[in-house]
Amino acid sequence: MDAIQGAYEPISLPTCLSFRTSLRKVRSIKFSGGGWLGNSTRLRGGYHDIPRFSVRVKAAMPEDARISLVNGHTETGAGKSVRDLSNIGNSTNIRWHDCPVRKVDRQELLQQKGCVIWITGLSGSGKSTLACALSRSLHSRGKLTYVLDGDNVRHGLNRDLSFNPEDRAENIRRIGEVAKLFADAGLICIASLISPFRKDRAACRALLPEGDFIEKSFVKVSALFSSIAWRSNH
Ligand SMILES: Nc1ncnc2c1ncn2[C@@H]1O[C@H](COP(=O)(O)OS(=O)(=O)O)[C@@H](OP(=O)(O)O)[C@H]1O
Ligand SMILES: Nc1ncnc2c1ncn2[C@@H]1O[C@H](COP(=O)(O)OP(=O)(O)O)[C@@H](O)[C@H]1O
């Protein structure tokens, strides 16, 4: 797997990079290419054991600059292009704005951990039933939840999408991004989608810190729970 999984937040070129990495520990980030002299930035606090971080670059970064992550003595990431990591194209106007009220503050207020529970399974397998039962159960325990159901989202945000593989991927990508925002808001977001392709679900998982994306294949894992939930209402 690539050490650098792609842009985590919008990157405001040329001064700010923020991304996720699959490396458990990253010691420094190395810049090269574009006439740069292989600058290496040591991350404060030694090793970082979080899967994402931001780095501010003071000098202007050339378009063909490449970055690598250095993990101890090993250099990984194979010089990913900064431009490839950006999801805002050539714009230099879009910048990431941090808000002083952070996820931890919202979690503290709500007394819960924001996360995504992703329920996947075939059409008619009981995903929506399980999502609603779970939401009701958590709600009754004072937990704030929100269900993102494939059917419902296709009535609005994703009404322009069909069921071909490309549109399904886009459907899942958008819902993954919305789910990430809900989790960041401190909610327990329950996404209920067919989401048939593992790579699309993996991309959604990669948007969140480790442990904050809980995936359940409805048919295999949750059938029993669903049966109980369903029977208790029928
Ligand atoms: N091929 C095809 N043609 C017509 N309608 C279809 C098709 N596939 C799915 N559906 C219906 O769309 C509902 C939502 O699907 P999803 O958004 O969860 O699918 S996906 O994740 O994008 O694969 C889905 O809801 P559920 O039955 O609740 O899964 C279906 O009602
Ligand atoms: N555990 C269960 N046992 C029997 N029927 C169920 C169960 N869970 C859901 N159902 C029924 O199966 C149908 C499909 O459920 P639904 O939750 O809409 O599935 P999905 O969201 O995967 O399409 C509904 O009629 C629902 O009432």
UniProtKB/TrEMBL annotation:
GO MF: adenylylsulfate kinase activity; ATP binding
Keywords: ATP-binding, Kinase, Nucleotide-binding, Transferase
Record EC number: 2.7.1.25
Catalytic activity: adenosine 5'-phosphosulfate + ATP = 3'-phosphoadenylyl sulfate + ADP + H(+)
Keyword set includes Glycosyltransferase: no
Domain (APS kinase) ranges: 113-220
SUPFAM superfamilies membership: P-loop containing nucleoside triphosphate hydrolases
GO biological process: hydrogen sulfide biosynthetic process; sulfate assimilation
Pathway participation: Sulfur metabolism; hydrogen sulfide biosynthesis; sulfite from sulfate: step 2/3
PANTHER family the UniProt entry points to: ADENYLYL-SULFATE KINASE 1, CHLOROPLASTIC, BIFUNCTIONAL 3'-PHOSPHOADENOSINE 5'-PHOSPHOSULFATE SYNTHASE
Function, as annotated: Catalyzes the synthesis of activated sulfate.
Family: Belongs to the APS kinase family.
Stated name of the protein: Adenylyl-sulfate kinase
Biological source species: Punica granatum (Pomegranate)
